[in-house]
Amino acid sequence: MATPAISDAYSLDETTRIVTDQDSGTEWLQWTETIGMAVDDDFSSIQGGGWSVASNEQMSALYDAFFPSIVWDADENTSQFSYGITTYGDGIDNAFKFGELFGWTYARDSKSVQTGRPFEYSTGFNATYAYFGNDLDGDGRINRTSVLSESIFDNPENGVYRERAEYFDLTSDNYSPGGTYFGGGVALVRTTPTTKVPEPSTLALLGLGLAGLTYARRKSRSRVYSIHS
After folding, report:
1. Burial 165-189 (b: 16+ CB within 10 A, else e)
2. Which end of the chain is less congested by CB atoms within 10 angstroms, N or C?
3. Pfam families, from UniProt (predicted)?
């Protein structure tokens, strides 16, 4: 049996638009819910409150779960990206899975010429963008995450047509926390402590232990009564 991917632990509640990591209990608000908002905004009234802007460490850990091809650096001044092309129609890639969970914040359907890239023409793409960061260096700048999927490209140079590209990156602190940016939301996270439910066998042993303790206490009281009577 194949080992489940770490990303399999993430699930979306379609009603609340909250993505939950079932292993840790950490919750992420779907990024489409904060389009048009800035990192400096007040999020206390959203979905019960308790949200904070995702830190660099939290975002790099999220990327490690979905895109393990490289080790994602939590340093806010480091930009990283991964880019790959697969034959269109080969199945659901992790970039698509990520976008379905966190929401597509931007889509482009029009065909356009792309220069300086390993492809020439694009028929459009789906993307999700979000802004995050805890500005540890105090320069007043934040970071952005980008995930693109379902991009279909024609590449006449190598004779391969109708390809799908996956692109995901963490961009170093180039953005103002007070700014709102087209096609992007704010990455909000909420940490909820998980409480493990005891196994039935554990509960049974606990019950037997309590019963034994009660019996022992009653027997002890009976002895004391007989001595003093």
Report:
1. bbbbbbbbbebebeebbeebbbbbb
2. N
3. PEP-CTERM (PF07589)
> Contact 34/45 with Cβ under 8 angstroms?
no
pLDDT tens, 192-223? 644 445 555 555 555 555 555 555 555 554 44
Assess contact for 19 and 30: CB atoms under 8 A.
yes
Classify residue 170 by its DSSP letter: E
> Alpha carbon of 50 to those of 27, 178, 184, 189: distances in Å?
10, 20, 21, 9
Residues 6+ apart with CB under 8 A from 62: 28, 54
Dump pLDDT digits (tens) for 90-112: 444 678 888 889 999 987 665 54
CA distances to 54, 86, 107, 215 from 202, rounded to whole Å, are 37, 49, 51, 20
pTM of the model: 0.70
